[in-house]
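User: Some background: our group keeps a shared notebook of sequences we're curious about, and every so often someone picks one and asks for a predicted structure to add to the entry. Today it's my turn. The entry only has the sequence so far, pasted here. Could you supply the structure so I can complete it?
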Amino acid sequence: MKVTEHIAQAKDTLISFEILPPLKGKSIDSIYEHLDPLMEFKPSYINVTYHRSEHMFKKRADGSFDKVEIRKRPGTVGICAAIMNHYKVDAVPHLICGGFSKEETENALIDLNFLGIDNVLVLRGDAPKNETFFEPHPNGHRYALELLQQVAQMNNGIYLEEDLQGGIKTRFCIGVAGYPEKHFEAPNLQTDMAYLKRKVDAGADYIVTQMFFNNQKFFDFVAKCREAGITVPIIPGLKPLTTKKQLTVLPRTFYVDMPEELTVEGMKCKTDKEVEALGQEWLIQQSKELKASGVPVLHYYTLGKPHVICNVIKAIR
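Assistant: Of course. Here's the predicted structure to add to the notebook entry:
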């Protein structure tokens, strides 16, 4: 079922989760162990992130180095199929521009369609860790808008091969990212909003936001979207604060502001266990306020902390 169909049929705020594929060489059992305690909350769908290859240098016996390409977290498509088979819950694979050609993207979409996966979250993706700027695959997409347009074309039965006639129409529900505090590369929020509007006009069915820790930022973002004529569902993305280090790492990595109150109280904590308890309570209050405001879905970035998310959801039911 499409994400938008879940939302249309819901009588209350839905719950969804986001997970990472396991590191290469690890068992899918780690996914099940992560999700098992969360399934009692009947998530409407589960997002699975996609990770581009990274270039690394391996030293040879003669002292020289070989540049090799490694994908540390493969398996997104297979994990989505496994989740749907194991839990009978819809899965939403991420699709990214970085490291993929248009043909590879088309083939991935064909596989997803054959598997009965109705949803994709379309993202540009980040630059590799050892590179400053994002560079697309030579035969790929530079922007999420272009990737979205390719998915929308396939929904209309249009494939890359121009002479291909009678191509089957896919039925993907397309999600895109929104940034309440703006994308870090956008010169200002107005420019970022205009680009988001272009994605919606090109066929995006819903928006899921970057994490935020101040609900007012989300409410202001939604208001600006509505003023801009963006009418699709807007889903808040939520993450718990669990370590003291995250007080500085999260703002630097994800370009989000930490509220002063949360920062002051977090700095008082002597252990990460204390920070986790603080972050859990903060997320509970965030979730309660967002739910009361009528958001369609509470989307939790679980990222190795399912027990925290379990406690949060129990507290807001």
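Suggested note for the entry: The mean pLDDT is 92. The two ends are 24 Å apart (CA to CA).
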